[in-house]
Design goal:
Length: 465
């Protein structure tokens, strides 16, 4: 528990508008977007600069408080939930875009900048920041870095890690670590930057980020393909990749998701089809035309029942936005939405859809599946009610068996959502006891007392006095 003296000290340093400790003010800060998981912080602080982050961490150390860093709380694995109470350091008031460097094609930002705000700012200067998580309208770049967020454009352009050039972070002892820079090539010493990306706040608290920008594509074309059998859609994805065509986006939705999205967005999607693929190619206009034509031929061979080409950018944007609403649309159907992040080699997509269908029947569940088909990154989503104990037991058994096979196929338990609280057991299955032991040694080197985001990724190491 935090003392009144500590609260007074925080208030004096950060201002009363940036320190919250009353129970009614803390309630929503105990959750993120992950069902069935919650915590209860003792205090939440909103620093507005790195010095205030350092001060809050020092006070937390002096009072033996665990610290949970947080952005907008859109995570889907419990990474920003204060599982052991203590202090939440919420960074979304550190939201300055510090520099757009057009000579070096970089952007330097504070951790609380919203993803879409950066995208729009650099686009106005004729530049492009590709990572686009589904929560881009609200998620922060610091959170994106901590979870190594992906997005619809991940197939061609990669994930957040691929655009991080430099980081500044505050370590558990209060010292600042600066790693990386604007140099395109830098192999000096240990790759601390790459270690920090995806570390979910367990090694340090990110305060500033320098990101790589690129020129935008000259042209785009968006295709929408309908299928009577979702396995044919999976085969189509594999065939497109095998033809050495890498679309910027290749998304899939099954029938359950299509109907929920149509109920939600009303854009005219056919309700009777088994699946759709949303595909976008971009680049030089001549290459775009060539690749789009080749994809249409592949889709026909893969038994697509219909292929549409978006008539203009407005229509294309409308389709992409409909895909981004998939989770919101599914969430309207039932009180609880369990969303997972199974990722398989692309050659195993058809088999994965077959397995999901079999497990849906076996466990008598309502499941909608969507995701980044071009990455092999699927989001099978169980629509359920956490008040129904038997249904929740079946839902978790569904995922347990699914991940068992995903790992057997050489897949991973997370393609973009992270481990957090929700997937620690699955991670142990994937990397084994040796991998867990090495991760614990790294954690101990950065955070000897285990104060930073305890319980996330690894079991808690309670060395705090």
């Amino acid at each position: 528990m935090i003392t009144k003296t500590a609260i007074d000290q925080l208030t004096a340093k950060l201002g009363s508008q940036n320190v919250f400790h009353q129970p009614e003010d803390l309630l929503t800060l105990g959750y993120d977007a992950t069902p069935q998981l919650a915590g209860s912080p003792d205090v939440v602080v909103y620093p507005t600069c790195s010095d205030e982050v350092q001060y809050a961490l020092q006070l937390a150390r002096d009072n033996d408080l665990p610290v949970t860093p947080r952005g907008s709380g859109t995570g889907l694995s419990g990474g920003s939930i204060p599982a052991e109470g203590g202090m939440v350091i919420c960074l979304n008031r550190m939201k300055r875009i510090l520099e757009i460097d057009e000579e070096n094609l970089t952007a330097s930002v504070e951790a609380g900048v919203v993803t879409l705000d950066l995208f729009n700012t650099v686009a106005a200067k004729g530049l492009f920041y590709p990572p686009d998580p589904g929560s881009q309208k609200i998620s922060t770049l610091g959170g994106n870095v901590m979870e190594d967020a992906g997005g619809l454009r991940g197939l061609k352009y990669g994930v957040t890690r691929d655009y991080v050039m430099a980081l500044r972070c505050i370590l558990a002892d209060g010292s600042e670590l600066a790693t990386g820079g604007k140099s395109v090539k830098d192999v000096a010493g240990y790759a601390f930057k790459d270690l920090l990306v995806g570390s979910e706040g367990t090694l340090g608290i990110i305060t500033e980020i320098t990101l790589k920008l690129i020129p935008p594509p000259q042209a785009k074309r968006t295709l929408l393909a309908y299928f009577a059998d979702i396995r044919n859609a999976g085969d189509a994805v594999s065939q497109i990749i095998a033809a050495k065509i890498i679309p910027s986006t290749m998304e899939i939705m099954d029938r359950a998701t299509i109907n929920c999205v149509e109920d939600y967005s009303k854009i005219g999607l056919p309700r009777q089809i088994a699946a759709l693929l949303l595909i976008e190619v971009d680049g030089h206009p001549a290459l775009v035309a060539e690749e789009a034509a080749a994809i249409e031929q592949i889709l026909a061979r893969a038994r697509a029942t219909e292929v549409q080409v978006a008539k203009d950018e407005i229509a294309a944007a409308k389709l992409a936005e409909a895909r981004r609403t998939a989770l919101s649309a599914l969430a309207r159907v039932s009180p609880t939405t369990l969303l997972e992040d199974a990722t398989v080699p692309r050659s195993m997509l058809a088999e994965t859809f077959t397995l999901i269908d079999q497990l849906t029947q076996k466990y008598q569940l309502q499941v909608g599946t969507f995701g980044h088909a071009g990455d092999g990154n699927l989001h099978p989503t169980v629509l359920c009610d956490e008040r129904n104990t038997d249904e929740m037991h079946r839902a978790h058994a569904f995922y347990d068996q699914l991940y068992e096979q995903v790992l057997a196929w050489g897949g991973t338990v997370s393609g973009e959502h992270g481990i957090g609280l929700a997937k620690k057991d699955y991670l142990a299955r994937q990397i084994g006891s040796g991998g867990i032991a090495v991760m614990k040694r790294i954690k101990s080197a950065f955070d000897p007392t285990g104060m930073l985001n305890p319980g996330k990724i690894l079991s808690t190491n309670k060395n705090r006095t």
